[in-house]
Amino acid sequence: MAEQNCLFCRILEGEIPAEVIYRDDRSVAFRDINAQAPVHVLIVPSEHIESLDEASQRDEALLGHLLRVAARIANEEGLTESGYRAVINTGEGAGQSVFHLHVHVLGGRPLNWPPG
């Protein structure tokens, strides 16, 4: 169910444009407009789930699906050899700024550790 004030729900509904690079019946992947790396893609579930903390046991298959899509996107973007990072920020203190669960796929440059 879409949330009226959710940026990602509005993207999913086509109300806000995005550069969509992948779509299936459970998720959509699009380029981040505030890219933090040469490749920065967001993968969001089609269903509104506020954060990883809000996901339930019934969402386990969906969570696995999002990570498989992340690997597919990384492969299609040519990141598998150089490496990439798949990140889920949960909560404001961890950097979650849109409260709709999403996976960041980052790559195309060396990524420092620890992050942040």
Describe this structure in words.
The mean pLDDT is 96. It contains 2 helices and 5 strands, in the order H-E-E-E-H-E-E. It is 20% helix and 22% strand. It is α+β, with helices and mostly antiparallel strands and 116 residues long. The termini are far apart. Strands 1-2-3-5-4 form a 5-stranded antiparallel beta sheet, with helices on one face. The protein has one domain (7-107): HIT-like (HIT family, subunit A, 2-Layer Sandwich).
Write the layout of secondary structure elements.
Elements: H1 7-12, E1 20-23, E2 27-31, E3 39-45, H2 60-76, E4 84-87, E5 103-107
Antiparallel strand pairs: 1-2, 2-3, 3-5, 4-5
Calculate the mean pLDDT score and round it: 96
N-C termini distance: 32 Å
Give the biggest beta sheet.
Answer: 5 strands, antiparallel
Based on CA atoms alone, the radius of gyration comes out at 14 Å
Number of H- or I-type helical stretches: 2
CATH superfamily placement: HIT-like
Element string (H = helix, E = strand): HEEEHEE
The total number of structural domains is 1
Q: Which spans of ≥5 residues are poorly predicted at pLDDT below 50?
A: none
CATH architecture: 2-Layer Sandwich
- Kindly report the spatial arrangement of strands forming the biggest sheet: 1-2-3-5-4
CATH uppermost class: Alpha Beta
Morphology: globular
β-strand percent reads 15-25%
CATH topology: HIT family, subunit A
Number of strands: 5
Q: Summarize the amount of helix as a percent range.
A: 10-25%
Helix vs. strand class: alpha+beta
